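Project outcomes to date are best conveyed with an example. Our students and postdoctoral researchers have been running inverse folding experiments weekly, and each run begins with a structure described purely in tokens. The record below, which covers 409 residues, was selected by the lab manager from last quarter's runs and is presented without edits.
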């Protein structure tokens, strides 16, 4: 069947509900015909004007909160990038034909972000449904009992909004605590010896989806060597942050005394068996020997590191992959493999938030990563890390945490 060209501007104007498009500065970018009819303002009177200049609060009603509530909702959408459904609002509107005369109006607003390529809201879809007649109809019934119902309905809507605000504040506080805890437990960005390394951490989209992933870089004893690791704890929030800190610290300590990465993971695997919340946690660790130009690696159920050679060849380090940390039988040694590199190559470790997408085969994400690294292989680690995140993470942000380490060898 041939594709049909859709005139989205015409669709927007024909929408049966009242819809306005607002810029991040809360200026009208456009309004549809239903919005024009519902507000009694022409398109020319609205487009290009600030929302609260066109519709200010009723100055004759000092208790009016409609504009304040709407502003808070719109700013919340801009800061979170998420839709905000408001409860019933009383928002009086000045009669355009009789300046100074205000009409009591009731509205049910929904504010939805339109995300740009950078993942930030570029527009807000401000949809409103006027329910003034419904409220008035209730007020005309049953000898005044409808007035009581109207007042109760409005009161319950206010209570719901206050409850939602308190819930958002509680979630925001817990998110801040979790992020602060993660920042305290993860190693800061730094140079490893005289080698250039870039590290990135991106929390998942959502109120509490943080603190599952980690990374670590350590100087190893004996020769010119460093250890680089990443890991992933199932779950989010404060509990996952605590487990993450325990496993990262254990692997960091084990790597400094282990003969190789497999032995380090064996030690951490035994430790994971007694850590509540470590079920199905994954990790991969690499030992880089700059004198011998080798990378020795071992993986506990984690996506494979990538070795980007100077000629653009991409090598996935996938020849030593075993079950997650707590799933390996205690006496069973983990596997280990090694590969060589020439100076100037790049080693990349990451967590699954970088490559996995719902309803998509993981190989597709791995190929996407390989192609991005190949195209930008001449960039320094800091720039390369930023480019990879920009190209691979969805515009609105990933639904899982993402950790990324880029080391120039």
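After processing, the design step wrote out the following sequence:
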């Amino acid at each position: 069947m041939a594709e049909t060209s859709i005139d989205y501007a015409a669709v927007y104007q024909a929408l049966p509900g009242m819809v306005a498009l607002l810029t991040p500065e809360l200026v009208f970018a456009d309004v549809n015909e239903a919005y024009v009819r519902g507000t009694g303002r022409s398109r020319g009177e609205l487009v290009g004007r600030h929302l609260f200049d066109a519709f200010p609060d009723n100055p004759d009603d000092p208790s009016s909160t409609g504009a304040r509530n709407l502003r808070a909702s719109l700013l919340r959408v801009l800061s979170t990038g998420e839709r905000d459904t408001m409860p019933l609002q009383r928002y009086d509107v000045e009669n355009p034909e009789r300046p100074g005369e205000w009409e009591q109006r009731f509205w049910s607003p929904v504010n939805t972000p339109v995300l740009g390529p950078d993942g930030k809201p570029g527009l807000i879809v401000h949809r409103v449904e006027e329910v003034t007649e419904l409220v008035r109809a209730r007020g005309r019934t049953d000898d005044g009992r409808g007035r009581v119902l109207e007042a109760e309905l409005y009161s319950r809507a206010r209570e719901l909004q206050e409850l939602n605000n308190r819930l958002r504040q509680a979630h925001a506080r817990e998110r801040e605590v979790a992020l602060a805890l993660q920042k305290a437990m993860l190693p800061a960005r730094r140079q490893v010896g005289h080698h250039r390394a870039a590290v990135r951490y991106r929390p998942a989209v959502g109120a509490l989806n943080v603190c599952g992933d980690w990374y670590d870089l350590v100087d190893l004893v004996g020769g010119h060597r460093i250890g680089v690791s990443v890991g992933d704890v199932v779950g989010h929030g404060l509990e996952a942050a605590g487990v993450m800190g325990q496993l990262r610290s254990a692997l960091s300590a084990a790597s400094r005394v282990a003969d190789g990465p497999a032995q380090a993971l064996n030690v951490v695997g035994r430790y994971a068996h007694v850590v509540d919340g470590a079920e199905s946690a994954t990790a991969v660790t690499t030992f880089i020997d700059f004198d011998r130009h080798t990378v020795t690696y071992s993986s506990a159920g984690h996506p494979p590191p990538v070795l980007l050679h100077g000629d653009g060849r991409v090598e996935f380090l996938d020849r030593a992959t075993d079950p997650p940390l707590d799933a390996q039988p205690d006496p069973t040694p983990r596997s280990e493999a090694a590969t060589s590199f020439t100076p100037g190559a790049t080693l990349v470790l990451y967590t699954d938030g970088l490559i996995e997408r719902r309803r998509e085969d993981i190989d597709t994400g791995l190929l996407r990563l390989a192609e991005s690294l190949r195209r930008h292989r001449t960039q320094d680690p800091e720039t390369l890390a930023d480019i990879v995140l920009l190209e691979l993470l969805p515009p609105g942000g990933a639904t899982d945490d993402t950790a990324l380490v880029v080391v120039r060898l």
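The first helix runs from residue 8 to 14. DSSP finds eleven helices and 19 strands in the chain. The training component of this project remains on track.
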